[in-house]
Amino acid sequence: MSDIPTLGIDFGGTSIKIAAVKGADLISDMERIPTQQHEGPDALIEEIKKRVDSLRAKFPDIAAVGIGVPGAIDFEKGITYNLTNVRGWTNIRLRDIIQEKIGLPTVLENDANCMAYAEFKHGAGKGFRNVVCVTLGTGVGGGLILNGELFRGSRFAAGEIGQMSVDLYGVDGPYGNRGALERYIGNRQIGELAAQKYFDAGKDAPEDLSPENLSNLAEAGDEVAVAVWDTVATYLGACLMSTIYLLNPDAIVIGGGVAHAGDVLFIPLREKLKNSLTRECFDDLTLSHARFGNTAGIIGCSTMARELLDA
Amino acid sequence: MSDIPTLGIDFGGTSIKIAAVKGADLISDMERIPTQQHEGPDALIEEIKKRVDSLRAKFPDIAAVGIGVPGAIDFEKGITYNLTNVRGWTNIRLRDIIQEKIGLPTVLENDANCMAYAEFKHGAGKGFRNVVCVTLGTGVGGGLILNGELFRGSRFAAGEIGQMSVDLYGVDGPYGNRGALERYIGNRQIGELAAQKYFDAGKDAPEDLSPENLSNLAEAGDEVAVAVWDTVATYLGACLMSTIYLLNPDAIVIGGGVAHAGDVLFIPLREKLKNSLTRECFDDLTLSHARFGNTAGIIGCSTMARELLDA
Questions:
Q1: How much is the ipTM here?
Q2: Domain A6-115+295-308 coded CATH 3.30.559.30
Protein backbone atom coordinates (compact mmCIF):
# COMPACT_ATOMS: atom_id res chain seq x y z
CA MET A 1 0.00 0.00 0.00
CA SER A 2 2.71 2.49 0.90
CA ASP A 3 5.27 1.28 -1.61
CA ILE A 4 4.56 3.81 -4.35
CA PRO A 5 4.94 7.53 -3.60
CA THR A 6 2.20 9.96 -4.57
CA LEU A 7 1.85 13.72 -4.43
CA GLY A 8 -0.40 15.63 -2.08
CA ILE A 9 -1.50 19.18 -2.86
CA ASP A 10 -3.29 20.93 -0.01
CA PHE A 11 -4.93 24.05 -1.35
CA GLY A 12 -5.55 26.64 1.35
CA GLY A 13 -6.68 30.24 1.40
CA THR A 14 -3.23 31.38 2.55
CA SER A 15 -0.88 28.88 0.96
CA ILE A 16 -0.83 25.82 -1.22
CA LYS A 17 1.26 23.07 0.36
CA ILE A 18 2.77 20.33 -1.77
CA ALA A 19 4.76 17.26 -0.76
CA ALA A 20 5.63 13.76 -1.89
CA VAL A 21 4.17 11.12 0.41
CA LYS A 22 4.64 7.42 1.06
CA GLY A 23 1.98 5.91 3.31
CA ALA A 24 1.64 8.27 6.26
CA ASP A 25 5.02 9.94 5.77
CA LEU A 26 6.17 12.95 3.86
CA ILE A 27 9.28 11.96 1.93
CA SER A 28 10.02 15.46 0.67
CA ASP A 29 10.07 18.90 2.23
CA MET A 30 6.71 20.64 2.19
CA GLU A 31 6.70 23.26 -0.56
CA ARG A 32 4.52 26.32 -0.07
CA ILE A 33 3.01 28.62 -2.68
CA PRO A 34 1.38 31.80 -1.34
CA THR A 35 -2.15 31.53 -2.72
CA GLN A 36 -2.81 35.25 -3.02
CA GLN A 37 0.38 36.13 -4.91
CA HIS A 38 -0.97 34.47 -8.01
CA GLU A 39 -4.00 35.95 -9.61
CA GLY A 40 -6.62 33.47 -10.63
CA PRO A 41 -6.49 29.81 -11.48
CA ASP A 42 -4.21 29.90 -14.54
CA ALA A 43 -1.19 31.47 -12.84
CA LEU A 44 -1.61 29.32 -9.76
CA ILE A 45 -1.92 26.13 -11.75
CA GLU A 46 1.29 27.01 -13.64
CA GLU A 47 3.10 27.55 -10.35
CA ILE A 48 1.76 24.25 -8.99
CA LYS A 49 2.97 22.47 -12.12
CA LYS A 50 6.49 23.92 -11.67
CA ARG A 51 6.71 22.64 -8.10
CA VAL A 52 5.30 19.28 -9.06
CA ASP A 53 7.83 18.92 -11.88
CA SER A 54 10.72 19.63 -9.54
CA LEU A 55 9.38 17.08 -7.00
CA ARG A 56 9.00 14.49 -9.75
CA ALA A 57 12.61 15.11 -10.78
CA LYS A 58 13.65 14.09 -7.26
CA PHE A 59 11.09 11.28 -6.93
CA PRO A 60 10.56 9.89 -10.41
CA ASP A 61 8.34 7.03 -9.21
CA ILE A 62 5.57 9.40 -8.06
CA ALA A 63 2.53 7.79 -9.68
CA ALA A 64 -0.56 9.80 -8.80
CA VAL A 65 -1.71 13.17 -7.48
CA GLY A 66 -4.26 14.14 -4.83
CA ILE A 67 -5.62 17.66 -4.41
CA GLY A 68 -7.54 18.89 -1.37
CA VAL A 69 -9.45 22.15 -1.69
CA PRO A 70 -11.35 24.32 0.80
CA GLY A 71 -14.93 24.40 -0.38
CA ALA A 72 -17.64 22.74 -2.41
CA ILE A 73 -16.66 20.39 -5.19
CA ASP A 74 -18.20 17.82 -7.48
CA PHE A 75 -16.14 14.78 -6.60
CA GLU A 76 -17.25 12.71 -9.57
CA LYS A 77 -16.60 15.41 -12.15
CA GLY A 78 -13.52 16.78 -10.39
CA ILE A 79 -14.82 20.34 -10.46
CA THR A 80 -14.43 23.06 -7.82
CA TYR A 81 -17.78 24.78 -7.36
CA ASN A 82 -16.64 27.52 -5.09
CA LEU A 83 -13.60 27.80 -2.84
CA THR A 84 -13.89 29.45 0.56
CA ASN A 85 -11.61 32.51 0.84
CA VAL A 86 -10.18 32.07 -2.65
CA ARG A 87 -11.73 34.19 -5.39
CA GLY A 88 -12.03 33.19 -9.01
CA TRP A 89 -12.26 29.44 -8.46
CA THR A 90 -15.86 28.84 -9.44
CA ASN A 91 -16.54 25.91 -11.76
CA ILE A 92 -12.90 25.04 -12.49
CA ARG A 93 -12.26 21.51 -13.84
CA LEU A 94 -9.26 21.31 -11.56
CA ARG A 95 -8.84 17.54 -11.52
CA ASP A 96 -8.70 17.17 -15.29
CA ILE A 97 -6.55 20.27 -15.75
CA ILE A 98 -3.92 18.95 -13.33
CA GLN A 99 -4.20 15.45 -14.76
CA GLU A 100 -3.58 16.74 -18.28
CA LYS A 101 -0.73 19.06 -17.32
CA ILE A 102 1.05 16.54 -15.12
CA GLY A 103 0.11 13.34 -16.89
CA LEU A 104 -0.68 11.33 -13.76
CA PRO A 105 -3.98 9.99 -12.36
CA THR A 106 -5.44 12.73 -10.17
CA VAL A 107 -8.15 12.93 -7.52
CA LEU A 108 -9.86 16.08 -6.20
CA GLU A 109 -11.44 16.15 -2.76
CA ASN A 110 -12.71 18.60 -0.17
CA ASP A 111 -10.01 19.41 2.42
CA ALA A 112 -12.03 18.38 5.47
CA ASN A 113 -12.69 15.02 3.83
CA CYS A 114 -8.93 14.70 3.18
CA MET A 115 -8.18 15.27 6.86
CA ALA A 116 -10.82 12.74 7.89
CA TYR A 117 -9.39 10.22 5.45
CA ALA A 118 -5.82 10.72 6.71
CA GLU A 119 -6.95 10.10 10.28
CA PHE A 120 -9.01 7.07 9.27
CA LYS A 121 -6.28 5.43 7.21
CA HIS A 122 -3.19 6.34 9.21
CA GLY A 123 -4.14 8.24 12.36
CA ALA A 124 -6.50 8.45 15.31
CA GLY A 125 -9.42 6.94 13.38
CA LYS A 126 -7.53 3.87 12.23
CA GLY A 127 -9.25 0.57 12.98
CA PHE A 128 -12.65 2.14 13.60
CA ARG A 129 -15.68 1.64 11.40
CA ASN A 130 -17.64 4.86 11.87
CA VAL A 131 -15.56 7.95 12.48
CA VAL A 132 -16.66 11.55 12.86
CA CYS A 133 -13.75 13.97 12.30
CA VAL A 134 -14.00 17.60 13.34
CA THR A 135 -11.43 20.28 12.55
CA LEU A 136 -11.48 23.42 14.62
CA GLY A 137 -9.87 26.54 13.23
CA THR A 138 -11.07 29.81 11.68
CA GLY A 139 -14.20 27.82 10.94
CA VAL A 140 -15.31 24.35 11.93
CA GLY A 141 -15.12 21.58 9.35
CA GLY A 142 -15.86 17.91 9.37
CA GLY A 143 -15.62 14.63 7.54
CA LEU A 144 -17.41 11.32 8.01
CA ILE A 145 -16.23 7.76 7.64
CA LEU A 146 -19.27 5.47 7.63
CA ASN A 147 -19.06 1.70 7.35
CA GLY A 148 -15.36 2.05 6.61
CA GLU A 149 -15.70 4.49 3.72
CA LEU A 150 -15.59 8.22 3.28
CA PHE A 151 -19.21 9.38 3.17
CA ARG A 152 -19.70 12.26 0.75
CA GLY A 153 -23.48 12.68 0.57
CA SER A 154 -25.69 13.20 -2.45
CA ARG A 155 -23.99 16.39 -3.65
CA PHE A 156 -20.58 15.76 -2.01
CA ALA A 157 -21.46 18.25 0.71
CA ALA A 158 -21.74 15.94 3.75
CA GLY A 159 -19.83 16.50 6.98
CA GLU A 160 -20.55 20.21 7.45
CA ILE A 161 -20.49 19.96 11.22
CA GLY A 162 -19.68 23.65 11.58
CA GLN A 163 -23.02 24.58 10.01
CA MET A 164 -25.11 22.41 12.34
CA SER A 165 -27.18 24.39 14.83
CA VAL A 166 -26.68 24.13 18.57
CA ASP A 167 -29.36 26.72 19.34
CA LEU A 168 -32.42 27.39 17.23
CA TYR A 169 -32.61 30.86 18.80
CA GLY A 170 -28.88 31.49 18.36
CA VAL A 171 -26.72 33.83 16.32
CA ASP A 172 -27.01 33.87 12.55
CA GLY A 173 -24.88 31.47 10.60
CA PRO A 174 -23.48 32.23 7.16
CA TYR A 175 -26.45 30.66 5.33
CA GLY A 176 -29.30 31.74 7.58
CA ASN A 177 -28.55 28.71 9.78
CA ARG A 178 -29.15 30.17 13.22
CA GLY A 179 -27.00 28.76 15.97
CA ALA A 180 -24.32 27.42 13.58
CA LEU A 181 -21.59 25.79 15.67
CA GLU A 182 -18.75 27.62 13.97
CA ARG A 183 -20.22 30.96 15.03
CA TYR A 184 -19.47 29.95 18.63
CA ILE A 185 -16.17 28.13 18.53
CA GLY A 186 -14.26 29.49 15.56
CA ASN A 187 -10.85 30.89 16.59
CA ARG A 188 -12.09 34.48 16.57
CA GLN A 189 -15.24 33.62 18.54
CA ILE A 190 -13.16 31.86 21.19
CA GLY A 191 -11.06 35.02 21.51
CA GLU A 192 -14.19 37.15 21.89
CA LEU A 193 -15.62 34.74 24.42
CA ALA A 194 -12.40 34.93 26.42
CA ALA A 195 -12.34 38.75 26.32
CA GLN A 196 -15.88 38.77 27.70
CA LYS A 197 -15.08 36.26 30.43
CA TYR A 198 -12.00 38.19 31.60
CA PHE A 199 -14.10 41.36 31.64
CA ASP A 200 -16.90 39.66 33.60
CA ALA A 201 -14.33 38.36 36.08
CA GLY A 202 -12.96 41.89 36.54
CA LYS A 203 -9.55 40.83 35.24
CA ASP A 204 -7.35 42.24 32.51
CA ALA A 205 -7.48 40.04 29.47
CA PRO A 206 -4.13 38.84 28.14
CA GLU A 207 -2.99 40.49 24.90
CA ASP A 208 -2.90 37.17 23.10
CA LEU A 209 -6.35 35.56 23.02
CA SER A 210 -5.46 32.89 20.49
CA PRO A 211 -6.63 29.33 21.25
CA GLU A 212 -2.97 28.35 21.70
CA ASN A 213 -2.35 30.94 24.37
CA LEU A 214 -5.68 30.34 26.07
CA SER A 215 -4.85 26.68 26.27
CA ASN A 216 -1.42 27.43 27.78
CA LEU A 217 -3.09 29.72 30.31
CA ALA A 218 -5.69 27.12 31.22
CA GLU A 219 -3.06 24.47 31.68
CA ALA A 220 -1.16 26.86 33.96
CA GLY A 221 -4.30 27.14 36.10
CA ASP A 222 -5.83 30.43 34.92
CA GLU A 223 -9.45 30.01 36.03
CA VAL A 224 -10.92 32.27 33.37
CA ALA A 225 -9.12 30.36 30.63
CA VAL A 226 -10.36 27.10 32.13
CA ALA A 227 -13.90 28.49 32.01
CA VAL A 228 -13.42 29.47 28.37
CA TRP A 229 -12.59 25.90 27.43
CA ASP A 230 -15.49 24.59 29.46
CA THR A 231 -17.80 26.82 27.43
CA VAL A 232 -16.18 25.66 24.18
CA ALA A 233 -16.78 22.09 25.35
CA THR A 234 -20.44 22.92 26.01
CA TYR A 235 -21.00 24.12 22.44
CA LEU A 236 -18.91 21.42 20.81
CA GLY A 237 -20.44 18.79 23.10
CA ALA A 238 -24.00 19.79 22.19
CA CYS A 239 -23.24 19.42 18.50
CA LEU A 240 -21.30 16.18 18.89
CA MET A 241 -24.09 14.77 21.05
CA SER A 242 -26.59 15.33 18.23
CA THR A 243 -24.13 13.90 15.72
CA ILE A 244 -23.63 10.81 17.87
CA TYR A 245 -27.37 10.22 18.34
CA LEU A 246 -27.74 10.40 14.58
CA LEU A 247 -24.76 8.27 13.53
CA ASN A 248 -23.74 6.14 16.54
CA PRO A 249 -20.03 6.29 15.59
CA ASP A 250 -17.28 4.39 17.37
CA ALA A 251 -14.77 7.23 17.16
CA ILE A 252 -14.68 11.01 17.28
CA VAL A 253 -11.43 12.62 16.14
CA ILE A 254 -10.84 16.29 16.85
CA GLY A 255 -8.17 18.20 14.99
CA GLY A 256 -7.15 21.74 14.10
CA GLY A 257 -5.56 24.39 16.26
CA VAL A 258 -8.16 24.37 19.03
CA ALA A 259 -7.69 20.64 19.53
CA HIS A 260 -4.23 21.38 20.92
CA ALA A 261 -6.03 22.64 23.98
CA GLY A 262 -5.76 19.05 25.16
CA ASP A 263 -7.14 18.07 28.55
CA VAL A 264 -8.63 21.48 29.28
CA LEU A 265 -10.98 20.86 26.36
CA PHE A 266 -11.16 17.07 26.26
CA ILE A 267 -11.93 16.39 29.93
CA PRO A 268 -15.07 18.59 30.11
CA LEU A 269 -16.08 17.48 26.62
CA ARG A 270 -15.96 13.80 27.53
CA GLU A 271 -17.90 14.49 30.73
CA LYS A 272 -20.63 16.39 28.88
CA LEU A 273 -20.99 13.61 26.33
CA LYS A 274 -21.15 10.97 29.03
CA ASN A 275 -23.90 12.91 30.80
CA SER A 276 -26.06 13.34 27.71
CA LEU A 277 -25.77 10.08 25.78
CA THR A 278 -27.31 6.64 26.14
CA ARG A 279 -24.93 3.85 27.07
CA GLU A 280 -25.26 2.33 23.59
CA CYS A 281 -23.92 5.58 22.20
CA PHE A 282 -21.27 6.37 24.80
CA ASP A 283 -19.80 3.16 26.19
CA ASP A 284 -17.77 2.09 23.16
CA LEU A 285 -17.06 5.59 21.87
CA THR A 286 -13.44 6.68 21.56
CA LEU A 287 -12.77 10.41 21.67
CA SER A 288 -9.31 11.43 20.55
CA HIS A 289 -7.02 14.11 19.19
CA ALA A 290 -6.13 14.03 15.54
CA ARG A 291 -2.70 12.52 14.89
CA PHE A 292 -1.85 14.87 12.04
CA GLY A 293 -1.52 18.61 12.22
CA ASN A 294 -0.91 20.72 9.15
CA THR A 295 0.05 17.66 7.09
CA ALA A 296 -3.37 16.01 7.43
CA GLY A 297 -4.70 17.41 4.16
CA ILE A 298 -1.62 16.37 2.17
CA ILE A 299 -1.58 12.89 3.66
CA GLY A 300 -5.31 12.41 3.09
CA CYS A 301 -5.35 13.41 -0.56
CA SER A 302 -2.09 11.60 -1.38
CA THR A 303 -3.58 8.46 0.22
CA MET A 304 -6.63 8.79 -2.01
CA ALA A 305 -4.27 9.25 -4.96
CA ARG A 306 -2.45 6.05 -4.02
CA GLU A 307 -5.76 4.19 -3.97
CA LEU A 308 -6.52 5.35 -7.51
CA LEU A 309 -3.70 3.06 -8.63
CA ASP A 310 -5.41 0.00 -7.12
CA ALA A 311 -8.88 0.77 -8.35
CA MET B 1 -38.59 -9.91 -5.39
CA SER B 2 -42.23 -9.84 -4.36
CA ASP B 3 -43.05 -13.37 -5.47
CA ILE B 4 -42.58 -15.10 -2.12
CA PRO B 5 -44.72 -13.98 0.86
CA THR B 6 -43.11 -13.29 4.21
CA LEU B 7 -44.44 -12.43 7.63
CA GLY B 8 -44.09 -9.06 9.33
CA ILE B 9 -44.42 -8.73 13.10
CA ASP B 10 -44.57 -5.15 14.33
CA PHE B 11 -44.07 -5.14 18.08
CA GLY B 12 -45.51 -2.06 19.74
CA GLY B 13 -46.10 -0.97 23.31
CA THR B 14 -49.88 -1.22 22.84
CA SER B 15 -50.28 -4.04 20.35
CA ILE B 16 -48.32 -6.49 18.29
CA LYS B 17 -49.43 -6.42 14.67
CA ILE B 18 -48.88 -9.38 12.39
CA ALA B 19 -49.58 -9.81 8.69
CA ALA B 20 -48.48 -11.74 5.63
CA VAL B 21 -46.87 -9.50 3.03
CA LYS B 22 -45.92 -9.71 -0.63
CA GLY B 23 -43.75 -6.82 -1.81
CA ALA B 24 -45.42 -3.67 -0.52
CA ASP B 25 -48.83 -5.28 0.01
CA LEU B 26 -50.46 -6.97 2.94
CA ILE B 27 -52.04 -10.18 1.65
CA SER B 28 -53.75 -11.05 4.92
CA ASP B 29 -55.74 -9.14 7.48
CA MET B 30 -53.63 -7.49 10.14
CA GLU B 31 -53.82 -9.51 13.36
CA ARG B 32 -53.43 -7.67 16.64
CA ILE B 33 -52.28 -8.98 19.99
CA PRO B 34 -52.70 -6.58 22.93
CA THR B 35 -49.15 -6.37 24.27
CA GLN B 36 -50.07 -5.78 27.91
CA GLN B 37 -52.54 -8.66 28.23
CA HIS B 38 -49.68 -11.14 28.18
CA GLU B 39 -47.23 -11.04 30.99
CA GLY B 40 -43.63 -11.24 29.96
CA PRO B 41 -41.91 -12.63 26.90
CA ASP B 42 -42.87 -16.30 27.19
CA ALA B 43 -46.65 -15.82 27.09
CA LEU B 44 -46.38 -13.22 24.34
CA ILE B 45 -44.13 -15.37 22.21
CA GLU B 46 -46.59 -18.28 22.55
CA GLU B 47 -49.41 -16.03 21.43
CA ILE B 48 -47.33 -14.77 18.48
CA LYS B 49 -46.60 -18.36 17.49
CA LYS B 50 -50.33 -19.21 17.50
CA ARG B 51 -51.13 -16.32 15.17
CA VAL B 52 -48.21 -17.13 12.92
CA ASP B 53 -49.29 -20.76 12.67
CA SER B 54 -52.79 -19.79 11.63
CA LEU B 55 -51.40 -17.37 9.00
CA ARG B 56 -49.10 -20.07 7.67
CA ALA B 57 -52.09 -22.42 7.39
CA LYS B 58 -53.67 -19.88 5.03
CA PHE B 59 -50.42 -18.95 3.24
CA PRO B 60 -48.25 -22.06 3.27
CA ASP B 61 -45.57 -20.51 1.06
CA ILE B 62 -44.59 -17.93 3.71
CA ALA B 63 -40.82 -18.35 3.77
CA ALA B 64 -39.34 -15.92 6.29
CA VAL B 65 -40.21 -13.72 9.25
CA GLY B 66 -39.32 -10.13 10.11
CA ILE B 67 -39.79 -8.59 13.56
CA GLY B 68 -39.66 -4.88 14.32
CA VAL B 69 -39.33 -3.84 17.96
CA PRO B 70 -39.46 -0.46 19.72
CA GLY B 71 -36.08 0.00 21.34
CA ALA B 72 -32.42 -0.91 21.36
CA ILE B 73 -31.35 -4.19 19.82
CA ASP B 74 -28.22 -5.99 18.75
CA PHE B 75 -28.96 -6.56 15.10
CA GLU B 76 -26.18 -9.08 14.53
CA LYS B 77 -27.03 -11.22 17.54
CA GLY B 78 -30.79 -10.75 17.21
CA ILE B 79 -31.18 -9.67 20.84
CA THR B 80 -33.51 -7.05 22.31
CA TYR B 81 -31.56 -4.94 24.80
CA ASN B 82 -34.43 -2.98 26.14
CA LEU B 83 -37.85 -2.22 24.70
CA THR B 84 -39.40 1.20 25.20
CA ASN B 85 -42.70 0.97 27.10
CA VAL B 86 -42.61 -2.84 27.35
CA ARG B 87 -41.31 -4.28 30.59
CA GLY B 88 -39.45 -7.54 30.92
CA TRP B 89 -37.83 -7.54 27.49
CA THR B 90 -34.21 -7.00 28.44
CA ASN B 91 -31.66 -9.25 26.76
CA ILE B 92 -34.14 -11.56 25.04
CA ARG B 93 -32.75 -13.60 22.11
CA LEU B 94 -35.93 -12.85 20.25
CA ARG B 95 -34.70 -13.60 16.72
CA ASP B 96 -33.45 -17.09 17.55
CA ILE B 97 -36.43 -17.92 19.76
CA ILE B 98 -38.87 -17.08 16.97
CA GLN B 99 -36.70 -18.80 14.39
CA GLU B 100 -36.62 -22.01 16.44
CA LYS B 101 -40.33 -21.98 17.28
CA ILE B 102 -41.48 -21.17 13.77
CA GLY B 103 -38.76 -22.86 11.78
CA LEU B 104 -38.26 -20.04 9.27
CA PRO B 105 -35.36 -17.61 8.68
CA THR B 106 -35.98 -14.61 10.91
CA VAL B 107 -34.64 -11.06 11.13
CA LEU B 108 -34.96 -8.67 14.09
CA GLU B 109 -34.77 -4.91 13.58
CA ASN B 110 -35.57 -1.67 15.36
CA ASP B 111 -39.04 -0.37 14.39
CA ALA B 112 -37.87 3.05 13.17
CA ASN B 113 -35.37 1.30 10.90
CA CYS B 114 -38.20 -0.89 9.60
CA MET B 115 -40.28 2.16 8.71
CA ALA B 116 -37.29 3.78 6.97
CA TYR B 117 -36.65 0.60 5.03
CA ALA B 118 -40.29 0.29 3.94
CA GLU B 119 -40.23 3.86 2.62
CA PHE B 120 -36.88 3.34 0.90
CA LYS B 121 -37.82 0.08 -0.80
CA HIS B 122 -41.47 0.72 -1.62
CA GLY B 123 -42.49 4.22 -0.60
CA ALA B 124 -41.54 7.89 -0.58
CA GLY B 125 -37.81 7.17 -0.37
CA LYS B 126 -37.73 4.85 -3.37
CA GLY B 127 -35.14 5.72 -5.99
CA PHE B 128 -33.12 7.96 -3.67
CA ARG B 129 -29.63 7.19 -2.46
CA ASN B 130 -29.48 8.96 0.92
CA VAL B 131 -32.75 9.13 2.80
CA VAL B 132 -33.48 10.50 6.25
CA CYS B 133 -36.77 9.16 7.64
CA VAL B 134 -38.43 10.77 10.64
CA THR B 135 -41.47 9.42 12.43
CA LEU B 136 -43.45 11.78 14.61
CA GLY B 137 -45.65 10.35 17.30
CA THR B 138 -45.53 9.98 21.09
CA GLY B 139 -41.79 10.34 20.57
CA VAL B 140 -39.71 11.15 17.52
CA GLY B 141 -37.86 8.32 15.80
CA GLY B 142 -35.69 8.07 12.75
CA GLY B 143 -33.91 5.81 10.34
CA LEU B 144 -31.15 6.46 7.81
CA ILE B 145 -30.53 5.06 4.36
CA LEU B 146 -26.99 5.97 3.31
CA ASN B 147 -25.50 5.02 -0.04
CA GLY B 148 -28.52 2.85 -0.69
CA GLU B 149 -28.32 0.83 2.51
CA LEU B 150 -29.85 0.98 5.95
CA PHE B 151 -27.24 2.60 8.19
CA ARG B 152 -27.26 1.10 11.67
CA GLY B 153 -24.18 2.61 13.34
CA SER B 154 -21.55 0.93 15.47
CA ARG B 155 -23.95 -0.36 18.14
CA PHE B 156 -27.09 -0.43 15.95
CA ALA B 157 -28.29 2.77 17.60
CA ALA B 158 -28.07 5.22 14.68
CA GLY B 159 -30.97 7.40 13.55
CA GLU B 160 -32.09 8.70 16.94
CA ILE B 161 -33.26 12.00 15.51
CA GLY B 162 -35.61 12.57 18.43
CA GLN B 163 -32.67 12.72 20.84
CA MET B 164 -30.75 15.35 18.87
CA SER B 165 -30.65 18.76 20.51
CA VAL B 166 -32.17 21.84 18.95
CA ASP B 167 -31.27 24.07 21.90
CA LEU B 168 -28.28 23.58 24.15
CA TYR B 169 -30.08 25.61 26.82
CA GLY B 170 -33.36 23.75 26.30
CA VAL B 171 -35.52 21.39 28.32
CA ASP B 172 -34.07 18.16 29.65
CA GLY B 173 -34.21 15.14 27.41
CA PRO B 174 -34.59 11.60 28.73
CA TYR B 175 -30.82 10.98 28.86
CA GLY B 176 -29.59 14.36 30.03
CA ASN B 177 -29.68 15.53 26.42
CA ARG B 178 -30.91 19.07 26.83
CA GLY B 179 -33.03 20.40 23.99
CA ALA B 180 -33.94 16.92 22.69
CA LEU B 181 -36.24 17.36 19.68
CA GLU B 182 -38.87 14.93 20.93
CA ARG B 183 -39.39 17.03 24.06
CA TYR B 184 -40.76 19.77 21.78
CA ILE B 185 -42.76 17.99 19.12
CA GLY B 186 -43.98 14.74 20.63
CA ASN B 187 -47.78 14.44 20.45
CA ARG B 188 -48.25 15.51 24.06
CA GLN B 189 -45.88 18.46 23.71
CA ILE B 190 -47.75 19.68 20.63
CA GLY B 191 -50.96 19.55 22.65
CA GLU B 192 -49.35 21.56 25.46
CA LEU B 193 -47.95 24.05 22.99
CA ALA B 194 -51.40 24.48 21.48
CA ALA B 195 -53.03 24.96 24.89
CA GLN B 196 -50.50 27.71 25.63
CA LYS B 197 -51.01 29.41 22.28
CA TYR B 198 -54.81 29.43 22.63
CA PHE B 199 -54.40 30.86 26.13
CA ASP B 200 -51.95 33.54 24.91
CA ALA B 201 -54.40 34.45 22.15
CA GLY B 202 -57.19 34.81 24.71
CA LYS B 203 -59.19 32.03 23.06
CA ASP B 204 -60.77 28.91 24.45
CA ALA B 205 -58.72 25.89 23.47
CA PRO B 206 -60.62 23.11 21.74
CA GLU B 207 -61.23 20.00 23.83
CA ASP B 208 -59.29 17.84 21.41
CA LEU B 209 -55.67 18.98 21.13
CA SER B 210 -54.45 15.94 19.24
CA PRO B 211 -52.20 16.53 16.22
CA GLU B 212 -55.03 15.23 14.02
CA ASN B 213 -57.54 17.77 15.28
CA LEU B 214 -55.01 20.60 15.31
CA SER B 215 -54.24 19.85 11.69
CA ASN B 216 -57.93 19.87 10.78
CA LEU B 217 -58.34 23.19 12.58
CA ALA B 218 -55.32 24.68 10.83
CA GLU B 219 -56.59 23.57 7.44
CA ALA B 220 -59.94 25.18 8.25
CA GLY B 221 -58.11 28.46 8.85
CA ASP B 222 -57.82 28.57 12.65
CA GLU B 223 -54.96 31.03 13.13
CA VAL B 224 -53.80 29.63 16.43
CA ALA B 225 -53.62 26.13 15.01
CA VAL B 226 -51.67 27.48 12.03
CA ALA B 227 -49.23 29.10 14.46
CA VAL B 228 -48.86 25.80 16.33
CA TRP B 229 -47.74 24.05 13.15
CA ASP B 230 -45.40 26.90 12.31
CA THR B 231 -43.72 26.41 15.69
CA VAL B 232 -43.54 22.65 15.14
CA ALA B 233 -41.90 23.38 11.77
CA THR B 234 -39.37 25.65 13.51
CA TYR B 235 -38.24 22.88 15.87
CA LEU B 236 -38.32 20.12 13.30
CA GLY B 237 -36.67 22.39 10.73
CA ALA B 238 -33.78 23.25 13.07
CA CYS B 239 -33.07 19.57 13.65
CA LEU B 240 -33.46 18.58 10.00
CA MET B 241 -31.21 21.46 8.96
CA SER B 242 -28.42 20.09 11.16
CA THR B 243 -29.07 16.58 9.87
CA ILE B 244 -28.89 17.79 6.28
CA TYR B 245 -25.63 19.70 6.82
CA LEU B 246 -24.17 16.53 8.28
CA LEU B 247 -25.45 14.00 5.74
CA ASN B 248 -26.39 15.91 2.57
CA PRO B 249 -29.28 13.52 1.80
CA ASP B 250 -31.38 13.64 -1.36
CA ALA B 251 -34.63 12.85 0.42
CA ILE B 252 -36.35 13.51 3.73
CA VAL B 253 -39.42 11.40 4.47
CA ILE B 254 -41.70 12.35 7.33
CA GLY B 255 -44.17 9.87 8.76
CA GLY B 256 -46.21 9.21 11.86
CA GLY B 257 -49.39 10.88 13.05
CA VAL B 258 -48.08 14.45 12.99
CA ALA B 259 -47.07 14.10 9.35
CA HIS B 260 -50.78 13.97 8.43
CA ALA B 261 -50.78 17.68 9.19
CA GLY B 262 -49.89 18.06 5.54
CA ASP B 263 -49.40 21.50 4.05
CA VAL B 264 -49.83 23.33 7.35
CA LEU B 265 -46.61 21.62 8.47
CA PHE B 266 -44.82 21.02 5.18
CA ILE B 267 -45.08 24.50 3.68
CA PRO B 268 -43.42 26.34 6.61
CA LEU B 269 -40.96 23.46 7.05
CA ARG B 270 -39.79 23.63 3.44
CA GLU B 271 -39.49 27.43 3.68
CA LYS B 272 -37.38 27.24 6.84
CA LEU B 273 -35.06 24.67 5.27
CA LYS B 274 -34.70 26.74 2.11
CA ASN B 275 -33.76 29.78 4.19
CA SER B 276 -31.11 28.01 6.24
CA LEU B 277 -29.34 25.64 3.85
CA THR B 278 -26.69 26.06 1.16
CA ARG B 279 -27.84 25.43 -2.39
CA GLU B 280 -25.78 22.22 -2.54
CA CYS B 281 -27.84 20.94 0.36
CA PHE B 282 -31.26 22.27 -0.62
CA ASP B 283 -31.59 22.38 -4.41
CA ASP B 284 -31.87 18.65 -5.06
CA LEU B 285 -33.54 17.76 -1.76
CA THR B 286 -36.96 16.12 -1.87
CA LEU B 287 -39.14 16.54 1.20
CA SER B 288 -42.14 14.24 1.33
CA HIS B 289 -44.77 12.48 3.41
CA ALA B 290 -44.29 8.83 4.20
CA ARG B 291 -46.35 6.55 1.95
CA PHE B 292 -47.13 4.03 4.65
CA GLY B 293 -49.04 4.66 7.84
CA ASN B 294 -49.47 2.00 10.49
CA THR B 295 -48.32 -0.74 8.10
CA ALA B 296 -44.84 0.75 7.63
CA GLY B 297 -43.25 -1.39 10.34
CA ILE B 298 -44.77 -4.62 9.04
CA ILE B 299 -43.82 -3.87 5.45
CA GLY B 300 -40.26 -2.88 6.42
CA CYS B 301 -39.48 -5.96 8.45
CA SER B 302 -41.20 -8.35 6.06
CA THR B 303 -39.13 -6.80 3.23
CA MET B 304 -35.97 -7.45 5.22
CA ALA B 305 -37.20 -11.01 5.79
CA ARG B 306 -37.70 -11.45 2.05
CA GLU B 307 -34.13 -10.32 1.45
CA LEU B 308 -32.83 -12.95 3.84
CA LEU B 309 -33.88 -15.52 1.24
CA ASP B 310 -31.62 -13.95 -1.42
CA ALA B 311 -28.60 -13.45 0.81
A1: 0.96
A2: no
